[in-house]
Amino acid sequence: MTTGGAWLDGLTEEELAELLCGLAECLDAMWAAGGDAVDGPEGTELP
Question: What residues contact 1, with CB distance under 8 A and at least 6 apart?
Fold first, then answer.
């Protein structure tokens, strides 16, 4: 892992689980708002 991600090594399993849960909630909210999102660059698309 690079030094940019070294802070992850210091997290406990509980902190990592909380981080991933928060990330999932954020992604869910982004997908839910997808209808209002600006189109990405030509040639790119969301799955």
Answer: 8, 9
